[in-house]
Amino acid sequence: MWYKAVIAFLVSMGLLAACGGGQPSEEEEAAPEATSGGSDLLALLPADGVVSDWAKDGEPRFFTPDNLWEFINGAADGYVMYGFEEVVTADYSMGSMDQQAVIDIYRMQDAVHAFGIYCQERYPDYEFLDIGAEGYLGGTALNFWHGPYYVKLTVFDESDELKEQLRNLAKEISRKIEHEAVQPREAEYFPTENQKARSIQFLPRDVLGQSYLRNAFEVQYQSGDTDYKIVAVLAEDAETATSGLSEYREFLSGSGEQKDLEGLGDEGFVGEDRFYGKVLAVRSGNNLLMVLGPPSEEVGKTALSAMLSKMTAS
What we know:
Blueprint: H1 2-19, H2 26-30, H3 39-44, E1 54-56, E2 61-63, H4 76-81, E3 84-94, E4 99-108, H5 111-120, E5 127-129, E6 134-138, E7 141-146, E8 149-155, H6 160-176, E9 201-203, E10 216-223, E11 226-234, H7 238-252, E12 259-260, E13 267-273, E14 277-284, E15 287-292, H8 297-313
C-alpha cells in the first residue's frame, strides 16, 4: 500500500542521514541503531502481539537534541526549548487489518515540560481521553502526556475500529509508565471562574515576549465580551522575582500611568499595556503574578487574592 512505501522511504532517509553518507565501521555494524537509545524508552513500546496482533515492523530508531532535526525538522527547536532529551520512534503493523502505525515516545526533562509541549499541540475541540495525565484524539493521531513522557501515535486510515486500536496501544504504553499521571500542581492555583477550557499552558522562556521572564503558567479567561489572561511566573528565588517585576514595570512605563498595588503580596503595581490594556502585577516571595486585560481592576484584584491564598496554603 502507498503508505508503506512512504514509511519505508522516510526510514531509509533517516538512516542515510544518520550515517552521513559514509561507509559504516565494523564497530557501527556491530552496534545497530536500535540499541543505541535509552532502554527506558524501548521498554515503553508495546511488545509484539500484546495489543491485538500489532507487531514492530523493523527496528526502533532514536534521536537526541543533536539530531532531532533529522526527525522533525521544522519543530525541533520548539521541542528542545521544552527540555527534550530523547525520542524513540517505531513502526508497527497489524496483519489482521492490513494497517500500519507509528509510535513516538518523547522523554522531556520533567513532567512540567512534557505537559508544556503537549499543550502546544492541543486544541480545545479535540476528543479528550482519560489516558495518562491527559490525551486527545484528532483525525488519525492520538497524543498524550504522562510524567516526563509525551507520546504520539499515528495511523494512516481514519475509522472507528482503528481509533479504538489507537486507544488500546496508548493505554498499554501508559500502563508501563511508572510516574504519576497527574496535572501540574500549579494549575490548581488559577481561578476557575471565567476560565476557558483547557487553555492552560506552560512557557519555559520569553514569557509575554520578555527574555527575563521564564518558567510560567498562563491561562486564558473570558468575561462577557472581554478576553483576558493570568500569568504566574515561578522564579528561582525572591531576588529574581523582584528583578522581574521591576523590569516588567519599567517595560510598561511608557504605555500609561502606573500606581502601586497595595495589600496584595509583597509588592505590586497597576499599569497599562498597549495591547492588553489594564495590567495588575504582584510579587509574593519568588512568585510573580500578572492579570492582563481584566474587565475591571476589581476583577483582577479578586483573582490575584484568590491565587495568593491558594499558593500560601499549598
